[in-house]
Design a protein that fits this description.
The chain is of the alpha+beta class and 150 residues long. 22% of the residues lie in helices and 37% in strands. It contains two helices and ten strands. It has helices spanning 7-22, 39-55; strands at 29-32, 60-64, 67-72, 75-80, 86-93, 99-105, 114-116, 123-126, 133-138, 142-148. The strands form two sheets. A six-stranded mixed sheet has the order 1-2-3-10-5-8. Strands 4-9-6-7 form a four-stranded antiparallel sheet, with no helix packed on it. Strand 1 (29-32), helix 2 and strand 2 (60-64) form a beta-alpha-beta unit. Helix 1 runs parallel beside helix 2. The longest helix is centred in the N-terminal third of the chain and has 17 residues, at 39-55.
């Protein structure tokens, strides 16, 4: 196997092959762990989310203790945040490249055609309004992160 890929990425490749071989219907892949401990390993988990788009058609979510991450692809997204499992904070982090246009609804501090990039603006420590739905429109891949109740 390729040593340029993380074990998490290799695991997704193996999983997708098994899903295809068995003809399974998979709506989402949830990975438990990968966000705690060493920062370089956390970033490797984020990088795997970029690889995942070329490995599986299923969305891949990573959960560790009280945090969840999901890589939003360019386009419009609608996220339910009224399940009772959400913690108090959320954020949008431009990983990989700047996002030149991000618009949101359902957050306490919404964005309107905002540029998100390191050194300018990264949306962290946000929270939800009372609508129960967050919409996000982005022109580039954008990391959604949120607290979850443990």
């Amino acid at each position: 196997m390729d040593q340029d890929l993380t074990d998490f990425t290799k695991c997704l490749q193996i999983l997708q092959k098994k899903i295809e071989k068995k003809g399974l219907q998979v709506d989402v892949i949830v990975a438990l762990g990968g966000l705690g401990g060493r920062f370089d390993q956390t970033m490797a988990s984020v990088e795997t989310l970029f690889h995942a788009t070329n490995i599986t058609p299923s969305p891949v979510i990573v959960i560790q203790e009280c945090s969840l991450i999901y890589l939003l692809q360019p386009g419009k997204h609608k996220l339910r945040v009224d399940t009772g499992l959400e913690g108090p904070w959320c954020g949008l982090i431009p990983i990989g490249s700047p996002c030149e246009s991000v618009t949101t609804t359902g957050l306490r501090w919404n964005l309107t055609n905002q540029v998100l990039k390191f050194g300018t603006l990264v949306s962290t420590s946000n929270t939800y309004d009372d609508s129960g739905i967050v919409t996000i429109e982005t022109d580039k891949p954008l990391l959604w992160t949120m607290a979850i109740k443990s």
